[in-house]
């Protein structure tokens, strides 16, 4: 049965506080770019949620 096969989780591309000493400059630059993209994604989600809250507030007079 395929359901019984255990597959390990892939490690995260970057973990906060992770040791950086063994990474190359290229690896560090790639991680920094990935983190910048993630920050932009999070900020977009925050903006969308704030807009939804404001819209709900105007409808329900929160």
TrEMBL record:
Pfam families for this protein: DUF1192
UniProt KW Coiled coil keyword: yes
Alphabetical keyword list: Coiled coil
Coiled-coil boundaries: 25-52
Domain of life (superkingdom): Bacteria
UniProt-recorded name of the protein: DUF1192 domain-containing protein
Native species: Methylobacterium jeotgali
UniProt lineage: Bacteria, Pseudomonadati, Pseudomonadota, Alphaproteobacteria, Hyphomicrobiales
